[in-house]
Amino acid sequence: MSNLEQGDAITPSRIAVITRAAVAEVRQAPLLMLIVFVPLVIVLEQTSPQAHTLLFAMSVCAIVPLAMLLSRATEAVSARTGDAVGGLLNATLGNLTELVISLAALPAGQYLLVKASLAGAIVTNTLFMLGGAFLFGGLKHHVQEFNRVNARFQACLLFLATVAIMVPSIISDVDQTSVVSQKLSLGLAVLLIAVYAMGMLFSLKTHRELFASASDAEEGHSSWPLTVSIVILVVVTLFVALISEIFVGSVQGAADRLGMTPAFVGFIVVALVGGAAEMTTAFSAARANRLDLSVGIALGSAAQIALFVAPILVIVSYFLGPEPMSLQFWPGAVTMMLIATMAATFLSNGGRGVWYMGVMALAVYAIFGLTLFLLPPAVPS
Amino acid sequence: MSNLEQGDAITPSRIAVITRAAVAEVRQAPLLMLIVFVPLVIVLEQTSPQAHTLLFAMSVCAIVPLAMLLSRATEAVSARTGDAVGGLLNATLGNLTELVISLAALPAGQYLLVKASLAGAIVTNTLFMLGGAFLFGGLKHHVQEFNRVNARFQACLLFLATVAIMVPSIISDVDQTSVVSQKLSLGLAVLLIAVYAMGMLFSLKTHRELFASASDAEEGHSSWPLTVSIVILVVVTLFVALISEIFVGSVQGAADRLGMTPAFVGFIVVALVGGAAEMTTAFSAARANRLDLSVGIALGSAAQIALFVAPILVIVSYFLGPEPMSLQFWPGAVTMMLIATMAATFLSNGGRGVWYMGVMALAVYAIFGLTLFLLPPAVPS
Amino acid sequence: MSNLEQGDAITPSRIAVITRAAVAEVRQAPLLMLIVFVPLVIVLEQTSPQAHTLLFAMSVCAIVPLAMLLSRATEAVSARTGDAVGGLLNATLGNLTELVISLAALPAGQYLLVKASLAGAIVTNTLFMLGGAFLFGGLKHHVQEFNRVNARFQACLLFLATVAIMVPSIISDVDQTSVVSQKLSLGLAVLLIAVYAMGMLFSLKTHRELFASASDAEEGHSSWPLTVSIVILVVVTLFVALISEIFVGSVQGAADRLGMTPAFVGFIVVALVGGAAEMTTAFSAARANRLDLSVGIALGSAAQIALFVAPILVIVSYFLGPEPMSLQFWPGAVTMMLIATMAATFLSNGGRGVWYMGVMALAVYAIFGLTLFLLPPAVPS
């Protein structure tokens, strides 16, 4: 056994090291103590599943420390793999949550809920996460450089997905039979997954040098060993998925009591809490002047939902759902996705980040939020 | 009293200097003699307010020399403050006219007129003023450089305002009660003003170095002292507002006699004459190879109307109007604003100005004008 | 007579040289032997004009070698004139086919067919031809540079044409009488032709240095003399027009037998075969690392159809058609043109070509094709 392999193996002495490290982490970031809410909320959900408002509040508290752990673990991994791979890894783990929740909703045929959650995640990642990263990073650093190749690449993928969702309903004026719509959705789903797979090939293999980070930020604090980081990533992601499901189950009841419309809950609240983990990583990366990682997580996650998660769900609905799910979205959702894509294109065009770009992205998001809060759409989520 | 302060104080001897300077100005630019129409049109409006076509013609003649004076004074001020501040100052003074006219129309509840005039000013400034500046500047200079940071910044603001106006009507398929629409408009108005204020902070304070001019053009002719310039700016602006009001009062009657549709008058004629002062400045700045100033006036003025004047009017309508005014515009107006914003983005992307870019912007404007001239929209202005 | 002129004159000895060269060409590219289908299909069309499926298959076979010849001749000419002029020349010759076919359809008043063929050609050139050039070029060369000034210029022209086609139907909510629509279309047609003519002046005369090629690719194989190339260009273009007409005549019958919708045939099949000649040139130029020529042909051809061919047909319809043709297109066609324009803008923005950009453009085209194949639109072509 070589030295290197030994250094990565999990032995009792390493566990002691990890425990000491964990204590040190908590001292540095007292918010990590909120982790006690994780078992509490799981127990409460078993004992009194009707306490919606309490479950809602406690699951939000429980997600925060998990998100912080995920953030640290991703940083540690991406410190070894580079920002592009780190961003992809983080986006994938973050979207696992979306995928798990949506897969749970498929057999019941709750397609409106699934689509609202997908569209909300795309819009929230593109505008709120990207905008927040620009704002938080820009408040600390005067001007931040980032590699615009990756930003443009992800924005183009988002544009493509929006076209795939938008075109069928615009080209055809006649009412489509659901058979035609389903065939078309299946074809588009296969097309999007193929384009996404080729995109991975392009960005991680044939032209990976174009995606190198603009900034050479060094890590401020000592980072975790690779094995530890990956174990933490996987375990914490599972807990995030678990808590997220409790959160989704309680949010509607809590929202009714707090006077929020279903559209606002589906698009804004679920997406914000569901993406908390990725957001924590994206914001802290921006403050550490690693805007490439932030942009990679925000736009990469949005593109992955649009070109991978949504199409997979369409295909899986043939096996799990009561009837096949189509790729057609409510027109308001398509409009918001298109505007978010255009905003991402404008913002990432220059390859430089300043605080005001964050303000503008957040303002577009606030316009959506305000409208959804005041004007319930015809088709509720 | 220091030397510097003495040099800026207004004394009899300085008034003599100003008078001599004024005579010299008129000799250089004989069109300034049209200023005699200013008292004439004011008198005529008092004596025969029904002579619409005559008032229309005379007020156009009176606005030209005032616009030229305003242009010279702004140039003199911006020579001391830099193009970004100069452009903002000019845009603000130019839009005072819009604001004054609109405030006069609020108590009568003429919201359609107000909105048509606002949308027309945004589209005219973005396409006609910017296009004219590119064309006039490009006919004299082969290729002109300009700072695209400012152009992009203003284009992003315009995009944001267009989203704020467009989203509410698209997201909601159901007919909105006017109560919901008013609440939403008030919220959006406050949001836009806040974003605009932060934009000022960004462009004039925290990141002002990004907005420095691309070209270091020196002034060809001796410029006026700062105090004189500011006094002229204020006095002439007041006269422009006065004459503009007479113009607006007469234009509808004159248009009927000349066979123009209300939409064409509201969008094109009023906006062109109302913006004459800023246009004169923008065009002459472009010919003096100060395209930064031109772009600053054109796009800055459009953004200011969209993010400051329109929201202010929504808020003021709560106090002055018969009922609150909403931010919802006629769909055709929103479409034209969106196209104008996209055109401004395309044109300002490269940071270089050539005559053909002016032709393209003017062609888009001509398409709008031709359509409005031939096809009266369902909702007249 | 100078030496140079003698070198370009057509004498018996030169014809022998040309024949030998032709034999050499066929040896290099055996596909050129398909040229025997040219006389065959012309004969078959005279003898059995009802054999639609056979005529369809044979005319496709006949167009391939003609396209290859056209490609070689254009390369030879553009080697002497530069890529910008070469691209324009190729686009014009390619669009002569469109123009000839459309002129033949005008007297019968088949305006839907004409418009579908124009819109299909614009979308196919912008997405399929540009995307294919990026893909084929990118598979051979890692990263290709191209002059983005020309690409942006053509994309702006396309945007302008799309606005001209889109605005009239959006601004006016009321049903337009056909008289108003015809007057407006005539005005817009004159405007577009004027803008296109000024664009030629700009790109070929006043600012031609901005349009110089980014790459200095040398010709791999010996190129033909200028006179020979031009004669071949003209003769082959005539044959392409002839075969194209047979193809268009047979395609509908063949499509019915093969189960394709009229919209799919009009937009996709006719446009792909009609543009085969230009595509061959564009793709082989991309493989020869002359992406400027490819972009010039693809976008230049699309812009020429939108700003020159379509307006000319509107004007000519006053003399040849049963009633004037309008510039109004079916909304789905306008949407596809707008998306194609935006895609072209995104793709050409960076001035660099890689294989994945081709994949994305082709994916957008595939979305259109799939939708048209499965969802027949309300208004058939």
From TrEMBL, chains A, B, C:
Transmembrane segments: 29-48, 54-73, 85-106, 118-139, 151-172, 184-204, 224-243, 263-283, 295-321, 327-347, 354-375
Principal location class: membrane
Record's keyword terms, sorted: Antiport, Calcium, Calcium transport, Ion transport, Membrane, Transmembrane, Transmembrane helix, Transport
Gene Ontology molecular function terms on file: calcium:proton antiporter activity
Residue ranges of domain Sodium/calcium exchanger membrane region in the record: 53-204, 229-372
GO terms for biological process, alphabetical: intracellular calcium ion homeostasis
Record's bilayer topology term: Multi-pass membrane protein
Pfam families assigned: Na_Ca_ex
Annotated compartments: Endomembrane system
GO cellular component, one term: membrane
UniProt-listed InterPro entries: CaH_exchang, CAX-like, NaCa_Exmemb, NCX_ion-bd_dom_sf
PANTHER family: VACUOLAR CALCIUM ION TRANSPORTER
NCBIfam families per UniProt: cax
Role of this protein: Ca(+)/H(+) antiporter that extrudes calcium in exchange for external protons.
Protein family (similarity comment): Belongs to the Ca(2+):cation antiporter (CaCA) (TC 2.A.19) family.
Protein name, entry field: Ca(2+)/H(+) antiporter
Organism: Rhizobium chutanense
Gene, per the UniProt record: cax
